[in-house]
Amino acid sequence: MTQQFEHFKPVALNHASRLLNHGPTVLVASAHEGRRNIMAAAWSMPVEFTPPRIAVVIDKHTFSRELIAASGVFALCIPGAAAADLAYAVGTASGRESDKFARFGIEARTGEATGAPLIASGCVAWLECRLIPERHAEDAYDTCFAEVVAAAADERVFSEGHWSFREDNADLHTLHHLGAGVFARASTMIKAKALP
Ligand SMILES: Cc1cc2nc3c(=O)[nH]c(=O)nc-3n(C[C@H](O)[C@H](O)[C@H](O)COP(=O)(O)O)c2cc1C
């Protein structure tokens, strides 16, 4: 392996999260008592295997957080590359004043396990989640922990437990937010070989 440290330059700590930013951007969909909403989140990750649990950062000040705190459920919907504009749009407008589903023509159906909205428009997978109530979380943290209680994915790009990113399904590849509305599309797959 070549020594490449000479190419490394310090990264300001306020930009450090961007080094990890490019997990798939998700759309967080929520609903409570007739109100529904959708926002983008670049910061989400699995945190437990069994039962499957995830963490997602949902700013305390968002309308989404309000609906999720009230309903105790939400869905993480994973947009395909063709939905980059939509992901950015729902991440830069608040649903407090207007219904983003109507405004952006987003199609959804109701999740059977949680009642949270599942996004059809441009999404390639979804996870229905139940919020894990945490003492003081409302005041202290933007991070929410949740248990995944149902999930599904578009078999053209995810089957038998694996993503399959190919040229013929490029519009269905996941989106990875690099910051400031710029995304990368997952594209080349690299299969690791055993080192001698
Ligand atoms: C690509 C992208 C990624 C984002 N990631 C996050 C995130 O991980 N966590 C978060 O709280 N807000 C994130 N945001 C901002 C929210 O989506 C934004 O505050 C949204 O308008 C909240 O909507 P709401 O008030 O209707 O819930 C992101 C925005 C964009 C465009």
Explained architecture:
This protein has helices at about 65-70, 85-90, 100-105, 135-140; strands at about 25-30, 35-40, 45-50, 55, 75-80, 110, 115-120, 125-130, 145-155, 160, 160-165, 175-180, 180-185. It is mainly beta and about 200 residues long. The chain has a single domain, classed as Roll (Pnp Oxidase, Chain A), CATH 2.30.110.10. The strands form four sheets. Strands 2-1-5-8-9-4-3 form a seven-stranded antiparallel sheet, sandwiched between helices. A two-stranded antiparallel ribbon has the order 6-7. The radius of gyration is 18 Å and the shape is globular. The protein starts with about 25 loop residues before the first strand and ends in an 11-residue tail after the last strand. The relative contact order is 0.19. The mean pLDDT is about 90. Bound molecules: flavin mononucleotide. Flavin mononucleotide (FMN) binds near residues 91 and 92.
Major sheet size, sense and barrel closure: 7 strands, antiparallel
The molecules bound to the chains, other than polymers, are:
flavin mononucleotide
Intertermini distance: 13 Å
- Report helical residue fraction: 10-25%
Query: Which architecture name does CATH use?
Result: Roll
The number of helices is 4
Quick one: CATH superfamily? Answer: Electron Transport, Fmn-binding Protein, Chain A
pLDDT < 50 stretches: none
How many structural domains are formed by the residues? Answer: 1
Sheet/helix structural class: mainly beta
Strand order of the largest sheet: 2-1-5-8-9-4-3
H/E series = EEEEHEHHEEEHEEEEE
- What value does the Rg take, in angstroms? 18 Å
Q: Could you name the CATH topology?
A: Pnp Oxidase, Chain A
